[in-house]
Amino acid sequence: xxxxxxxxxxxxxxxxxxxxxxxxxxxxxxxxAVHAASRSVRQPRLYRKLSALGATGGSVADTLNEHIKEGxxxxxxxxxxxxxxxxxxxxxxxxxxxxxxxxxRKIFFSYADYAxxxxxxxxxxxxxxxxxxxxxxxPSAKNLLTYGTLLxxxxxxxxxxxxxxxFEKMDELNFASTSLTFNNLMSLHMRLGKPEMVPxxxxxxxxxxISPDTFTYNIxxxxxxxxxxIEGAERVLEEIKRENEDKLNWTTYxxxxxxxxxxxxxxxxxxxxxxLEEEMGFHDRLAYHFLISLYAGINNLSEVNRVWNSLxxxxxKTNNMSYFTMFQALANLNDxxxxxxxxxxxxxxxxxxxxRLANVAVRAFLGWDMIKDAESILYEAVKRSSGPFYTAxxxxxAHHLKDRExxxxxxxxxxxxxxxKNNEWQPAPERVLAFLKYFEEEKDVEGAEKxxxxxxxxxxxxSNAYQLLLQTYIAAGRTEPEMRKRMKEDDIEVDSKIExxxxxxxxx
Length: 508
What we know:
Layout: H1 12-21, H2 45-51, H3 53-56, H4 60-69, H5 76-88, H6 92-104, H7 111-125, H8 127-135, H9 144-156, H10 160-172, H11 179-191, H12 198-207, H13 214-226, H14 230-243, H15 250-262, H16 266-279, H17 285-297, H18 301-314, H19 320-332, H20 336-349, H21 355-367, H22 371-384, H23 390-402, H24 406-419, H25 429-442, H26 445-458, H27 463-476, H28 483-489, H29 496-505
C-alpha cells in the first residue's frame, strides 16, 4: 500500500516539526483578523497595543493598567473607539475584556454600552450568558437598544420562537418601531429559508409608517431573487428611485448585480456593476471588494484586474482582506499565472502572513494538480505563520486520497489531528468513508486499524466506521477476538446488520 510517487511528496509531519523547531525564531506579528494586516501609523497607540494582543496573547487588563502606569490618561471615548475597532475586526473577546475592565473601574455605561456588552457576551460566552445579563439589567436599561440587541442575537442563532415572542413583547412596549427591528426579522426568515415572509414584513412596516432603509430594500431584493422573481427585484430598484432615492447607494446595485449573476444574466449584471462604480466613493474599500467578486462571477477577468489596479491606487497599503478577495477571484477564474503573481506580490509585502490567504492559494493549486506550488505555499506558511494549519493539511489529505496515495493521505491526516486542540477539525464523513472503503478493497486490516486509531483520537468511532472495519476483516478473512469488547467500550449500538458481521469476525 505505497503512495504512487513518495519521493516527490512533502511529509506533513516533517513540516510541523520544522515549525516547532523554528517557533522561537523572530517572526512577523500575526493579526487575528484578515482586515487588520496593514496598520496605519496614525492609529492611536492604545489601540495598537490592544489589537496586537491577538498575536501576543497578553491580557487586556494588564495592557490598560500598564498604559496608565506610564502616566497616560485613558478617556472613555478612547476606550469606546478601541471597542468599536476590535469588534470591526472580530476581536470580540478583547472588546468584551475592555468593557469588563470599565465595569470594574465603575466607568459610566450609556444605554448603548449595555447593548454592546450584551452583543459581545452572546458572541463570546453564548446566548445563555447574554440572556442572563439582559435579565439582570435595571428596568431603565431594558430599552429599545438592549431589546433590539437581544432580538438580533436570537435571529442570528435562528431561534424563531424566541425571536417572535420577543418581537411581540417589544411591540407591546412600543419598541417595534424601527426599520432595524423589522430588518432583523427579515434576516431570520432568509436564514430559515422563508424568503416569502419578507415582502409582507415590508408591507407591515409601511402600514406602521416605518420607512424602509437601504438594508430593508437590499434584503427585499434578495428575497425576490430567492423566489426566482427577477422582475420583483427590479421593481424594488424602481421603487427606491421613485420614493426613497436617498436610500439608494452602491450596495443597492451590488445586490442587484448579485441577483443577476446568480440568474446568469451577465449583461444585466455588468450594467448594474457600472452603476455601482458610479455610486461608490473612491476610498470605499468594501465596494472594490464587491466589484472584484462580482466581476469574477460573470467571468470578466479584464474587469477584475482593472478594479484591482484601481483599488491599489486608492489604497497603496493594500490590506490582507483585499488580497483575500483577489485570490478568491483569480482562483474562481482559473487564472493560474495571475494567482501566482498576486500571491508573490502579497507574500513580499504583507505585514501579517495570514494562513487563511495561503489556504485559498493552496486549494486553487491543488485543484489545478499543481502539487509542487501548493507544497511551496504550505512551507512558506509554516515558516511565517503560527497557523492553524489543519485546513491546509486537510486539503492535502483530500488530494492524495483522491489520487489513492493512501500512505501520504494518512500522514497529512495525522498532522492535521496533531494541530487540533478543541475539536476545531475532523475529517469529513465522505473522506472517512473513502479511506475505509479503500482498506476494504485492498483487504488491508493493518491500514484500517491504523486509520481507526487516528480517527478515534480525533472524533471517536461510530457504528458506520465499525461496520466498515468489520467488512475489512471479513474481506481479508481475518478475525478479531476483542472486537465485541472494543465496541462496547466505545458505546456502539449493535444492530442486526452489525451483529451478522460480528458473528464472522468475533464469534461468541
